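Data deposition worksheet. Section B asks for the primary sequence of the deposited chain exactly as it was used as input, without tags or linkers unless they were present during the calculation. Section C holds the resulting structure in token form. Section D is free text for depositor observations; keep each observation to a single sentence. Incomplete worksheets are returned to the depositor.
Section A, Depositor: J.P.
Section B:
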Amino acid sequence: MSGTIPLSLTQQFDTFGQPLKGGQLFLIVAGTVSTPQDGFQDPSLTIKMPYPITLDAAGRIPQFFLADGFIKVRLQDVRGVVQLASDGIQVIGPSGGGGGGGGAVDPNALIQMGNIIARYGIGGLTGYVRLNGLTIGSATSGATERVNADCQALFNYLWITDPNLILTPPRGANAAADWTANKQIALPDWRGYAMGALDDMGNAAAGRLTAAYFGTSPIVLGAAGGAQSKALLAANVPSHTHNGGGTTGNDSPDHSHGFTTPTQVGQGTSGGGLAFSSSGAANTGGASTRHTHSFAFTTDGGAGLSGLDFSVISPRKLCTFYMKL
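Section C:
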């Protein structure tokens, strides 16, 4: 989204009523002393204006466009004498209501800095950064997702809101000092994650997410838990019985075993007992005797019992998550 401010395409005059020929307009990040804010020649915010913007021979300011939000301006003459300085000017454009007349734009009706949106696309988006774990910072910070003065407000917001986000070099005394030191701050990393809600959100924890199953505290902003697969452990298998018996033969509790009746063949040579041979008539043991056999079941390692992890991912479609600058 883009817009402009009332200074665009206006003619400016000095205190003597003469056109402000060669004057300079500085676009500055709101709330800062002199951090540059990009201006653009087109509403798509792709062609940057020079910094500062120079007024023509008639003292006219060329048309320029800005990202949604607020801005600070300083207008000075060719000698550097300040003619106008104002902070907190709201950028007015289609996303702010456009049209003629009407009252002030309600900022709560707009997508505000720090809001997250989902978009069916994979590239960059003007006025936003992707939640990919890369970094943002000033134009000289060397950040990996976006390096620009328009990142300052989000840099400050993330610095205060989530103390677990990594800064490079490490976190200092405050957000303003770290921005001035051209540090980078990591964006929240949403790669491969579905979005969920904190288990408390200002209320008592609901217990719908717990550390035992989520894997970490469910009441910490930005906490990541869960997994795409699960291994079935012995402790996960419910108590159950395997049927190992039958109704006939040796599988039955009531059955008999055949054996051969030994036959005495003589006295032992040392008088220590009788000698028997194994020949003789078969004996079935008479009536059946109730008894049991004990045996263990083991897996065979085959395709049906391979022990592979199984998926726990619910059906979903993928897009890109962005955060408003």
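Section D:
Residues 133 and 189 are 4 Å apart (CA to CA).
The longest helix spans residues 152-161.
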